[in-house]
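Following the same procedure, backbone shapes were mapped to integers, yielding the entry below.
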Amino acid sequence: MSDITELERRISAALDRIGTGLDGLADPAPEGPDPAEMQASLDIAAARADELERALSDEKLANAQLEERMKSVRDTADRHASAMDIQAAEQKQTTAKLDSELQRLRRAAEDLRQSNLGLRDALEQGLNEPHLINKAMLAELETLRATRSVEMAQADAVLAALEPMVKRAAQDAAKADDAKESSNA
């Protein structure tokens, strides 16, 4: 039994030394990064993610505004193209009318020339032909009418060419007045 007591004493002494040794040891360092550093990195990443989300949201808004402006520009361009097509068709009609009036004038001038030649020949032969004088007068009247029609067609062509410019100038003046009023308000 004395051996048991001796063993107990030795075990107790060893346990005391172990306890004393453990008290002097510090807690072991955790493996991996420091939780405080991890939280700081996580906070920084979350702030950056929020910042990027705001930037993305701003860009989406700017993109939507640009798309709306592009749609407005396309609509305006389409309206202008339609107006230009209408204007071109009107000018084509005006030009066709002017051309037909010029053809009429040329025919009337040729008729007048022929009538005058016939009248001159009759006068040279000493013939007094009243129907030739009437024919010459009618040809001259038709030439005057054709000349007047050509002048009207030319005036219509000029007015048709000026009308879009006048409309555009009126629209620009209205826009300028609106801008001036809005800046004064």
Summary: The CA atoms of residues 91 and 160 lie 7 Å apart. The chain has three helices and no strands.
